[in-house]
Amino acid sequence: MEITSHLSLNDEEKLVLYSIGALDNTPLRSKIKIQKLMFLISNVFKDFQDILCFEPHLFGPYSETLVNVLESLIRLDLVESTESSYRLTNLGLRMYSRLKPKHELARVIDDFKLFLKDLSDDEILAFIYVSYPKYISDSIRWDELKPKRQDFAIDLFKKNKVSFGKAAEIAGLNAVEFDEVLKKKGIRWRE
């Protein structure tokens, strides 16, 4: 009998395990990415908001519950963490293969993980702070990131991570102003 049959995970542990294992166990390469991935998921599925309890923190939305869940999964040898990178262990992959989340949840997790995986932490924070401004209050990074908003917005837009309207919002500009910025930089975005 395999050890995974003896493990009983609670809902938040299953959610985190499944999120880390999504997209063929693509590693989440920072604490910011795992926190923001779970935050974005919890904003789509309100049941998880009460479980993970995100609050304003030094680097935007933060869940102490998530930290505890990660530590638990690491102790159970389901998740490995190296230099702030998280991925499933072999045992974690076996447990992951037994999880059967609802199709909608699996799709949202995949979409958000794909969205975040090739973004820098600063791009993620700029996106989060603009999209969820109530989490700026305790930030130690927002004042440093604000002068670079246009650069983050352009990068996110060029990577097809956000729409033109969202990029303009991240840049802190209206649509006409952002269009002018793109023209000055030689970035064509419409035919």
List keywords for this structure.
Arc Repressor Mutant, subunit A; 2 domains; 11 helices; 60% helix; elongated
Describe this structure in words.
By secondary structure, the chain is mostly helical. The protein folds into two domains: 1-117, Arc Repressor Mutant, subunit A (Orthogonal Bundle); 119-191, no CATH class. It is built from eleven helices and two strands; from the N terminus they run ααααββααααααα. A hairpin with a 2-residue loop joins β1 and β2 (85-88). 34% of the residues are buried. The mean pLDDT is 93.
Concise account of the structure shown:
This protein has eleven helices and two strands. It is mostly helical.
SSE pattern: HHHHEEHHHHHHH
- Shape descriptor reads elongated
* CATH architecture name of the largest domain: Orthogonal Bundle
End-to-end Cα distance, whole Å, is 61 Å
CATH topology of the largest domain: Arc Repressor Mutant, subunit A
Low-confidence stretches: none
* Order of adjacent strands in the largest pleated sheet: 1-2
CA gyration radius, whole angstroms: 18 Å
Helix content: 55-70%
Largest sheet: 2 strands, antiparallel
Assembly status: single chain
- Assess the beta-strand content as a share of residues: under 5%
Overall number of structural domains: 2
Q: What structural category arises from helix and sheet content?
A: mainly alpha
